Amino acid sequence: MSFRLVKNRTFIYASSRSYATEISNASLKPSPYGQPLFQSHSHLIKPDELTPGIHAQEYEDRRRSLMNRLPDNSLVVSLAGTIKYMSGKIFYKFRQASDFWYLTGFEEPDSAVVLEKNHSARGYRMTLFSSGSDSNKEQWDGANTTFADARRVFQVDDARHIDDFPSHLRSVVHQYSNVYVDLPSSRTRRTSRTTTKSLLKYLSGRSEADLVVESLGKSRPKPLAPEVGRLRAIKSASEQKLMRMAADISGRAHAKTMRFTRPGLSEAALAAHFNYLCSLSGAQRLAYVPVVASGPNALIIHYTHNNQLISQEELILVDAGCEYNGYASDITRTYPADGTFTPPQRDLYSAVLAAQKALVALCHEGSNLTLHELHRKSCELLRQELLQLGFQLHPGDLERLYPHFISHPIGIDLHESDSFSRSGSLKAGMVVTVEPGIYVPPSPAFPKHYHNLGIRIEDEVLVGKEHPVVLSASAPKEIVDVEGACQGSLGLESF
Ligand SMILES: [Mn+2]
């Protein structure tokens, strides 16, 4: 039966171009490219796409929008990520720096791009610096993008070796009165004072660095992140599609992890199961270290030890999401370990759920809300719900029960908040989380039957003109659906 099917498919494809593609793919192992391209990975990338789901033209549009917004005489420098090491020479799987990736789609470490605003038809000149091909290195790590491919595939005006970066910068920087660059340590540790010298040490590790420091120093660089952040805040149609897919993969993994859960298992087993399901669906990694908190562990907001055992009648709080084709997802669900909420668990869950749904409904442009206002609403709603459950709320009590913020923007980064103002109104095309929670410490100030319950419900919401779209809808949220998923009655076979 299966043999016949394969033969039929071969017959159908034989007269089409896709068959030829399949044949040529087979001969492209190992891939001669530095990252997946249609020619080598047609199962991941369509012909016009530069990275899965995003066309080369969209990358061009992003750069153009950035350069159009900047004043004349502007120079933009964006730096790729570097490989991080776990210990000695043992490296972590590489993830590209977010802004660099947003502007280029280029996935190799130790690279940089320089965009010089000019009066050409394109409006700017793009120079990409990378490691280029190196046959010695290739035997160990596989191919890098050649400079010819950088010009052809990534549409750069000039492709050069990263070693030429400092001298190039030095030769052009004095021509520009506005230089936009983010210094590496400002991306990782915002509190530390960064110097231009550390940037160049990082970039080149060469003695001529000091000369370039002088050049940059005179031009007083401005931060690039807020400029790119403004563009990244509004998601394009293709970004929305990728984010929906990321949230859908994570949502279904939540549903299946509910089904997988039973008392006696470890929190780590649940985390592993979630991770496995996301990987199986094509996610490249988890977007963050997941929280799998059983019982009172849920009172620790960022509980990531995930190393205890699940007991009967406990709630499990899972805050987990995958990264898919460059976009993060972020979902929290809280559910009963043995499949049925106890009455106090059900009451507290219903309270958080009612508030969460009311807040989600506000996430459209028409309500003209800022994130600060959404947070104030969440405090009001949760206060009302808690009073109805018999809580006596004295000053400071609500902050104790609900100690975190309601929302953050999400996209390429899990928290796209660094350059996002909580005082700006929600605009169509933004994606934000809505994540109220209640965490009841075992204090005589609060009703005893709610002690040690921690509940958070978090969805990802695409802000619309007139209504919100919940991207994480595949994760069960209503009590009947959560209990159904835990007990195995929710269409999980469709995973
Ligand atoms: Mn979140």
From TrEMBL:
InterPro entries: Aminopep_P_N, Creatin/AminoP/Spt16_N, Creatinase/aminopeptidase-like, Pept_M24, X-Pro_dipept-like. It comes from the Eukaryota. The keyword Protein transport does not apply. Residues 54-190 form the Aminopeptidase P N-terminal domain. Its cofactor is Mn(2+). Keywords: Hydrolase, Manganese, Metal-binding. SUPFAM superfamilies: Creatinase/aminopeptidase, Creatinase/prolidase N-terminal domain. This is Peptidase M24. It comes from Lentinula lateritia.
